[in-house]
Fold this sequence. Notes:
The chain has helices spanning 2-47, 128-140, and strands spanning 53-64, 68-79, 85-87, 89-96, 99-106, 110-112, 116-127, 146-156, 159-168.
Amino acid sequence: METVFTVVGLACVLKYKVILIASGIIASVILIGILLLNVVVEVEQRKALENIQIEFADVAIRNIGLTSVMLDISLDMYNPNDVIATLDRSEYELWFNDNYLGKGVIEQETDIPPLTSRLVDTGFDLSYVEAGETVISALTEEQHTWRIKGVAHYDSIIGTIDMPFDIIR
């Protein structure tokens, strides 16, 4: 009789171990699915930046140096997408008619809801030499081309993703 109870008890213990292992596997699959869905959403929010429309909203002088002036620039960023556009941070160069103006940094994370504008503040180092060439170019050339070239950094649960961008208008 003792052997029967031991076999029955062992069978119950094995049954519960199988149920516990199966539950762990199911929970792991669900967790991985949630993480992958989160990654997909994050990538979509960052890809939405490709369609963002950018306008200068305000410019102020932060510091005047010997070779350049540091400006505080406010950019009005409009999101025409149907998903939130997310910018974590970015470094960029600004060009006008193929003349290098300088470099800037966007340091704060910004979420721009669909069909909405957000003001984004950035520091910009404007070189006096490049600024002078740009004024001459603006006065002598009929076509005006702006170019913003840089790297946008996207922080996600899988690490930081660097995406280069080059926008010409």
